[in-house]
Amino acid sequence: MQLMHPCLKDLLLIPEYNQSAIAFISLETELPNWLLKLSKLFPYQIGLQIRREYRHIAMGLRAFKFKDIDSIFVFEFYNQHCLFLLPLLALRGKLTFLTLHGNQQFAMNSKIKYLGFIYLKIYLELFRNLKVVLLEIDDDVIPEKYRFPDYCKYLMPLPILSEVTPRLKLGERLSENETIKIGVVGMIRPDKPIALILDKIQQYITDSDHQCELIIGTPLGQKPAYLDEVKATLLDTTKEEDYLKVLQQIDILIIHYDQERYFYRASGVISDAASAGCHIIASDYPVIHHQVNHPVKIGYNFSDFAQIPKLIDQTIEDIKNHGQDNHWQWREARTVRAIAPIFDVEKK
């Protein structure tokens, strides 16, 4: 099954640890040729919405193909494409978990996504078999109009990526003369502005007594031209296996997100990087703060770019003194074994 982010894959193993039969459905499905041809007759944005609407309808119809199940787990969906999906899931009649990936955040900044959010709340009230899954923390950190009622909410930590592990075992430390690799990893988009981050890292490497190297991991076919002028090692992360190799090379991941898109939203890159043992320095938004600090601290959060050099210093000291010990403990609360009981019994 194709999923929107690698760290969600372990959730497919929930049935191995769960007493109930759960089926999984995802938006990431192959599109028929006739639909692809039809969507290309329209401008790109219109064609994109046609393809997304088809995916949502197809996901709702797939829910009827499962036999002898207790519940359905929906990996992702878009607020603005719920018109047919929700009636289909309600009609199916099974306990259904709808995972939220920034759906409430997007409703704050888009009228059509807000209308989809209201539509979802109506269905949650009318059909109590429908539930939403919030990642990391409750939604009491956002305005009340964008929250969901308690009766329909489940909380889940973003799971680890189990196929990667920290390089250092418990109690193991880096050698004194080893270069600290500071990384910026992921798709470079407008909601992930990195120019200021790169400036701070480069200045730190120039001024610091620590031996450090800057690594940038991104799909090189889509990289901005200005990256060629940055003094760094550029690594291609187009393929998932290359993306994971890059994360395993890095000691410190520094990442910043736009507040309008990530104030109440989890980061898949942070989850993957922490799974690989990276110490994290990230934007100080509520969900991301929880990712970095729960159940144990694996990094720092910043609210001002000027804090970054000092936080790098503190992180290097943490690496020298504690290695990746906290990362092994951090992983335990985010394994599929720890998550599976959340979905074992219907909330009363």
Automatic annotation (TrEMBL):
SUPFAM superfamilies in alphabetical order: UDP-Glycosyltransferase/glycogen phosphorylase
Protein name as annotated: Glycosyltransferase
Species of origin: Cyanobacterium stanieri LEGE 03274
